[in-house]
Amino acid sequence: MGSEQPIISYNKFNLKQIQKLGATISKYLFPGAKLLLFGNLGTGKTTLTSYIVNSLSKTPVNVTSPTFSLIKVYNTNPTIYHVDLYRLNDPQEIEYLDVFLDPEGVYIIEWADFLDYLTPEERLEIHISYNEDIKYRDVKIEGFGEKYKEMEAIIEKEQ
Predict the structure, then answer these.
(1) pLDDT tens digits for range 32-42
(2) Can you give the CATH number for the domain in which 148 is found?
(3) What sections of the protein cross the membrane (predicted)?
């Protein structure tokens, strides 16, 4: 995360609130958008991605983690590239994936901390962590770049 405090910080989010967050984010995505997801195993990165994808899909989509395939492409408008970097050991391996190749696609990157020097300057970071009460999640969102700061402010208003 950047040195600034995130504008959006939610504590004790339940599943319905995560679903609403995903639907809200999906309304403001634009071609070339980059969403970087951070969080431990099981915190809800793929769940949030599922809500985003299904908000943009004409038919229900079973979104699963692309841990083994590394990238899943969803036929939404705009196209969503769901990337999971968990199994990669070196940022150089990511270069071979041609991540961010499609300038019109939306990229949702799980385990984005593995991007290292490939982290885009402009992006929306979403950090999901366990709350003290394991049934809930804490969520922090921070936009980097003008478009993402605007997106961040709109998301905050709609939640």
Answers:
(1) 999 999 999 99
(2) 3.40.50.300
(3) none
Coil, strand or helix: which one is 24? helix
Structural domain for 58, as ranges:
19-39+50-158
CB atoms within 10 A of CB 89: 8
First vs last C-alpha separation in the chain: 21
Q: Quick check: is 11 in a domain?
A: no
Contact of 155 with 21, CB cutoff 8 Å: yes
Total number of domains in the chain:
1
Examine residue 135 and state whether it is found in any structural domain, yes or no.
yes
Helix (H) or strand (E) holding 18: helix 15-27
Mean pLDDT for the stretch of residues 82-95: 84
In the three-class reduction of DSSP (H, G, I as helix; E, B as strand; rest coil), residue 47 is classed as helix
- Burial of residue 22 (CB within 10 Å: 0-12, 13-18, 19+) is buried
pLDDT tens for 94-139 read 777 778 889 999 999 999 999 988 999 999 999 999 999 999 999 9
